[in-house]
Specification:
6 helices; mainly alpha; 67% helix; Fic-like fold
């Protein structure tokens, strides 16, 4: 699975991460912006291992930091998540990923609203 997303040569990772971070800090943070950040981060593939876990953790943290209902990809939706990443990689379309993140937000909210 790791090589499936690796599109940036290792010697270009630092530069691409700087470009991504410059773009990100200029955005108003929303789920679509976080989805775009996520797929771009995954495409850069900055680490040898753990990129998916790290990317999802960053997404979760940024949701909390920006008072957005967090997203946790349920195991049952893993294939949908991978298909959405593939759609972005092949077609540069985010709609499937955004829809999945919004579905996961509703699931998270319903399961956590007791504590709110």
């Amino acid at each position: 699975m790791i090589s499936m997303y690796h599109t940036v040569r290792p010697e270009h990772v630092a530069q691409e991460m700087c470009v991504l971070m410059d773009w990100y800090i200029s955005q108003e943070i929303t789920v679509p912006v976080l989805a775009e950040f996520h797929v771009k981060y995954e495409s850069i593939h900055p680490f040898q291992d753990g990129n998916g876990r790290t990317g999802r953790l960053i997404f979760f943290r940024e949701c909390l930091k920006n008072e957005i209902v967090p997203v946790v990809i349920e195991d049952a939706n893993k294939n949908e998540y991978l298909a959405a990443l593939k759609m972005y990689r092949e077609e540069k379309r985010l709609d499937k990923l955004i829809a999945l993140f919004e579905k996961e937000q509703r699931f998270c909210f319903e399961n956590c609203k007791y504590f709110i």
